[in-house]
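Key result, reporting period 2: structure in, sequence out.
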């Protein structure tokens, strides 16, 4: 046991404490137990009285609503509606129609709701459950419901149960949340429905009156926790679902499908079937409980509400805390007094002599054989001290002899140990372990050798560490360099592909330009022939004016010449169309070349300038071609008029002179037009030649770019090979250094 291992002084203290503390504890326990029991009885009595008061208030409110229902059932409008319904909508007794009585009762309901704001709805249902009258009371105003919103309540439990009652009886429904159209109204509105049956003069049931009461008015009777009340109040229905609770998340479990009930949370299954109207429970874990039942339906004792008050046992017993603290203080004071007396006696009689003996034994155990005990008493403790002095003297003599022998052995063993340490250190360094150093003392030869070995190890460690750091830096730099080279190689390959595509496109453009140049040359030759022909036509006109005799023959020649000229003009129009198409393609290719030059950056600036010049030449060619087409259109119109003139000249000699003169004018205009056409064809030829020269320059520039790009790709590939070689060298160097442990 632990007590056996205690010192003598501690054992004496334990005995004194038990002798003083046990009676005090017994008295304190009896006092605290009695006080706790009395406090629990008083607390339960107070809690029982409080829950009965709350239940009484709620029961009084329920009885008041029942009296209101009995009052409303007796108003003339209710009986008048019953009589009118029995007589096809007319009450012969009071000479009022069904609608008259219905309007009067609606006004009575509205005034009644305004006077008593705890009513949520007032309704009159027929025997089939159809609402005939409904007055809703919201936000301080009563609203009579229109016929279109009236509903059928035949399947509701409160309608079914109320229709079973006798005259004057009132049914109180379950306490739940209001619903409209089958859905719970938001925000949640607790409601209790009071129903009373309606009978006609023959004693037949003709519907019910329903008074919907705002449940919050009932729940307001449940007190909130405060300093003047003991415990926490709550209210539950017959199945234990919370109707009122400080934690709102636990309420309305039946409607919101929550599992929380009083009987489950506190394991009070027997309380669900209790027949006592009120009572208390004290056999709960750290809690006290009081309850009181409310029977809204007097004839059904199983249908009930329960007001519950739960108090924490620690809170109830807090009033005896000061008394308990006083007892604790008294016990502590008694304990301190007993400890003080016991400690003084133990220290004087036992502790001090035993402490001297123990101190001497500790010194003797540590090798001090010169220790001796003095001031010995004549009791058993003094005899133990004398025996200790004799034993110490014998041991001191024996140790002196042993020390003389060990001095010689120690000197030889020290040399052997130091040599062993030197050999072990050399073996570790040879195996690559540079993390350890020798502990060297003294100034002899072995000590100097140890110093030299430590310096050698330190130098090797510095060399290996520096080499490792250098290899790491080289490896990191190579990784970054390899990534940059890969990116440059990928970009250079893409640029080379783009340059190849552009060069191929330029070759196509150059071929098309050569074809256009050939067609333009043909256009110039044709224009030149047209000019000569027009000059010949002018001569023929002059000759026709000089001699009218052969006018018919010459007019036929003119007509043939004009037709040939029209065909040639048609050919010129086709050639100008080709030139226009070529100019448009040249513009698109120049635009694409400008885009590729922008992508190439600094290397593509010269190519961008050439592309801009090509685009400008193409625009000029397109404009010149448009002018040629306009001139050709004018020539075509002139030839048409000439043909008509020759046909009219054949009709008569008299008209021939006039026709010849007009033909002379036309031929002079034609000669001018042909001359302009010739000039335009020469301009087109010059433009096409400029385009062709510009394309040759662009092609040459693209070949230079392609050559530079190929050289760059080859350089990046060589850089990849070089970086890989350096990485291999760094790996071999790392493997060499990894032998050492730093």
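The corresponding designed sequence is given below.
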């Amino acid at each position: 046991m632990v007590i056996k291992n205690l010192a003598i002084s501690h054992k004496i203290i334990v005995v004194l404490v038990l002798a003083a503390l046990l009676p005090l504890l017994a008295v304190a326990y009896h006092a605290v137990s009695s006080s706790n029991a009395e406090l629990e009885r008083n607390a339960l009595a107070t809690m029982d009285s409080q829950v009965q008061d709350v239940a009484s208030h709620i029961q009084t409110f329920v009885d008041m609503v029942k009296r209101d229902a009995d009052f409303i059932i007796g108003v003339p409008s209710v009986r008048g509606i019953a009589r009118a319904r029995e007589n096809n909508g007319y009450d012969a007794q009071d000479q009022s129609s069904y609608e008259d009585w219905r309007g009067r009762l609606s006004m009575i309901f509205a005034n009644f709701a305004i006077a008593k704001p705890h009513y949520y709805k007032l309704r009159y249902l027929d025997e089939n459950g159809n609402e005939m009258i409904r007055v809703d009371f919201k936000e301080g105003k009563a609203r009579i419901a229109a016929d279109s919103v009236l509903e059928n309540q035949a399947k509701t439990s409160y309608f079914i149960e109320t229709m079973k009652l006798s005259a004057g009886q009132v049914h109180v429904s379950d306490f739940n949340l209001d619903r409209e159209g089958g859905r719970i109204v938001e925000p949640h509105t607790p409601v209790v429905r009071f129903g009373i049956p309606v009978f006609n003069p023959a004693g037949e049931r003709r519907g019910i009156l329903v008074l919907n009461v705002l449940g919050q008015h009932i729940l307001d009777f449940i007190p909130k926790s405060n300093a003047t009340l003991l415990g926490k109040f709550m209210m539950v229905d017959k199945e234990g679902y919370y109707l009122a609770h400080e934690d709102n998340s636990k309420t309305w479990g039946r409607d919101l499908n929550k599992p929380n009930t009083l009987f489950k949370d506190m394991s009070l299954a027997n309380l669900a079937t209790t027949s006592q109207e009120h009572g208390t429970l004290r056999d709960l874990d750290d809690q006290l409980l009081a309850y009181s039942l409310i029977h809204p339906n007097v004839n059904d004792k199983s249908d009930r509400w329960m007001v519950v008050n739960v108090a924490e046992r620690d809170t109830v017993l807090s009033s005896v805390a000061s008394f308990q603290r006083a007892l604790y203080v008294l016990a502590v004071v008694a304990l301190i007094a007993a400890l003080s007396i016991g400690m003084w006696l133990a220290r004087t009689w036992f502790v001090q002599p035993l402490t001297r003996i123990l101190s001497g034994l500790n010194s003797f155990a540590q090798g001090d054989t010169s220790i001796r005990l003095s001031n010995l008493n004549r009791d058993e403790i003094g005899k133990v001290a004398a025996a200790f002095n004799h034993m110490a003297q014998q041991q001191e003599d024996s140790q002196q002899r042993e020390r003389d022998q060990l001095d010689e052995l120690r000197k030889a063993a020290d040399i052997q140990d130091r040599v062993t340490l030197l050999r072990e250190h050399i073996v570790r360094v040879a195996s690559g372990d540079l993390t350890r150093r020798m502990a060297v003392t003294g100034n002899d030869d072995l000590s100097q050798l140890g110093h030299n070995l430590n310096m050698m190890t330190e130098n090797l460690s510095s060399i290996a560490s520096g080499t490792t750091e250098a290899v790491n830096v080289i490896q990191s730099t190579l990784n970054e360099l390899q990534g940059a080279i890969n990116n440059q190689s990928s970009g250079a390959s893409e640029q080379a592909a783009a340059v190849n595509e552009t060069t191929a496109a330029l070759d196509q453009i150059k071929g098309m330009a050569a074809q256009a140049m050939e067609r333009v040359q043909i256009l110039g030759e044709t224009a030149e022939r047209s000019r000569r022909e027009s000059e010949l036509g002018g001569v023929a006109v002059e000759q026709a004016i000089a001699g009218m005799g052969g006018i018919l023959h010459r007019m036929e020649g003119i007509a043939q010449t004009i037709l040939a000229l029209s065909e040639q003009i048609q050919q010129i129009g086709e050639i100008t169309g080709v030139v226009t198409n070529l100019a448009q393609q040249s513009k698109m290719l120049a635009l694409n070349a400008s885009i590729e030059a922008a992508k190439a950056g600094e290397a593509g600036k010269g190519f961008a300038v050439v592309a801009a010049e090509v685009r400008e030449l193409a625009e000029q060619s397109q404009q010149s071609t448009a002018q040629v087409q306009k001139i050709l259109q004018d020539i075509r119109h002139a030839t048409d008029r000439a043909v008509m003139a020759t046909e009219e000249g054949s009709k008569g000699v008299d008209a021939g002179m006039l026709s010849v003169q007009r033909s002379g004018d036309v031929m002079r205009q034609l000669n001018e037009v042909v001359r302009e056409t010739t000039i335009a064809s020469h301009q087109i030829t010059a433009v096409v030649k400029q385009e062709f020269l510009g394309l040759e320059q662009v092609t040459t520039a693209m070949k230079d770019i392609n050559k530079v790009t190929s050289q760059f790709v080859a350089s990046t590939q060589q850089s990849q090979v070089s970086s890989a070689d350096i990485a291999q060298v760094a790996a071999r160097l790392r493997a060499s250094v990894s032998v050492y442990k730093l």
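The mean pLDDT is 77. Residues 445-546 form the longest helix (102 residues). This case is discussed further under Risks and Mitigation.
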